[in-house]
Amino acid sequence: MAEEWTLVTDGACSGNGTEDARGGWAAIIDGPEGESVLVGAEAPSTNNRMELTGVIEGLRSLPDGARVELITDSTYVANALLKGWLDSWRKRGWKTAGKKPVANRDLWEAMLVELARVGPVSPTVVKGHAGHPANERADRLAQDAAADLSLSADAPPPTPGEQLGLGLD
């Protein structure tokens, strides 16, 4: 039987969508081997890029076949998985229902690789800043990472004029 893991993720971005935006992400992983915490940052960035990166990096840290409960305050991430947006975007050649390019395609494609590698992923959406202890902790970690750009990865910045990932169903 596959091991069960809980992955709590969050992203934060100061100056979201601007040239000076500072983004941070966090992933808190809890499973049979205990807890681990991952954090990172990039600039410039967007909040949605950081939300996605937290999930991707958290999934990358899990063993093949892991059963995952993903706890996130990002409806962007959760709806892409729960409402089939991700599958629809792929079938439409990475276009939204409005025929616009899907924002953050590079990250969605990286997430697909991880989703195929781990076992089932069950997203649970929690309301951000509403007292969920693990979500509050992930939020603080992501904000701290955004403030400390020495944690920056070499991820590509968003394309100028790129959608911020809103209304992509």
Please provide a brief summary of the model.
With 169 residues, the chain is α/β, with parallel strands linked by helices.
Structure write-up:
With 169 residues, this protein is of the alpha/beta class. The protein has a single domain, classed as Ribonuclease H-like superfamily/Ribonuclease H (Nucleotidyltransferase, domain 5), CATH 3.30.420. It is 34% helix and 24% strand. The chain is built from 5 helices and 5 strands, in the order βββαβαααβα. It has a 5-stranded mixed β-sheet with strand order 3-2-1-4-5. Strand 1 (4-14) and strand 2 form a beta hairpin. The protein is globular and about 40 Å long. It starts with a strand and ends in a 22-residue tail after the last helix. Mean pLDDT is 88; it is low at 154-169.
What low-confidence regions span 5 or more consecutive residues with pLDDT below 50? 154-169
**The CATH topology is what?**
Nucleotidyltransferase, domain 5
Q: What is the radius of gyration? A: 15 Å
CATH class: Alpha Beta
SSE string, helix = H, strand = E? EEEHEHHHEH
How does the major sheet shape up?
A: 5 strands, mixed
State the strand order across the main sheet. Answer: 3-2-1-4-5
Distance between the termini: 35 Å
CATH architecture: 2-Layer Sandwich
Task: Please give the count of helices.
Answer: 5
Helicity level: 25-40%
Overall, the morphology is globular
Assembly category? single chain
Layout: helices, strands, pairs:
Blueprint: E1 4-14, E2 22-31, E3 34-42, H1 47-60, E4 67-72, H2 75-82, H3 85-91, H4 105-117, E5 121-125, H5 133-147
Parallel strand pairs: 1-4, 4-5
Antiparallel strand pairs: 1-2, 2-3
Helix pairs in contact: 1-4
